[in-house]
UniProtKB/TrEMBL annotation:
Pfam family, one: ExbD
Protein name, per record: Biopolymer transport protein ExbD
GO cellular component terms listed in the entry, alphabetical order: plasma membrane
GO terms of biological process kind: protein transport
Subcellular location: Cell membrane
Source species of the chain: Symmachiella dynata
UniProt keyword terms in alphabetical order: Cell membrane, Membrane, Protein transport, Transmembrane, Transmembrane helix, Transport
Lineage: Bacteria, Pseudomonadati, Planctomycetota, Planctomycetia, Planctomycetales
Amino acid sequence: MKVPLRRRERGLHFNITPLIDIVFLLIIFFLAASHLARSETAQAVELPEATRQTDEAELAQRVVVTITAEQRFFVGGNEMLLPQLEFMIQQAKVDAGEEPLEVQIRADRTVPYGTVEPLMLSCVKVGITKLNWAVLPTR
């Protein structure tokens, strides 16, 4: 009795499973990144105008704090009281370790300085010296 031999197929076979895995990971990454970008600007604030503009260097870590005209603080779309905000900034500084950490303040143009000053003092107390203001360029 003759045992049937399996025919050997000639040609190139390409396994695309790892490629599909990478594509799905990229899709998940971009979905998460777009969600975070939208949550930073979730509150509508009327930004002040500035006559000068500096180039925005990308840092490893950034915390965006939005202060509305009603003098309410938001981080990532979540409303926070000042003590909660101070604790969150302190935790972000600890998590950043040796990497530079930046706090960007998006304050409505009608917000008085007395509302922003405690936030700035909290940043300095923790050791964050890189504070940026979100402004609109003058036309």
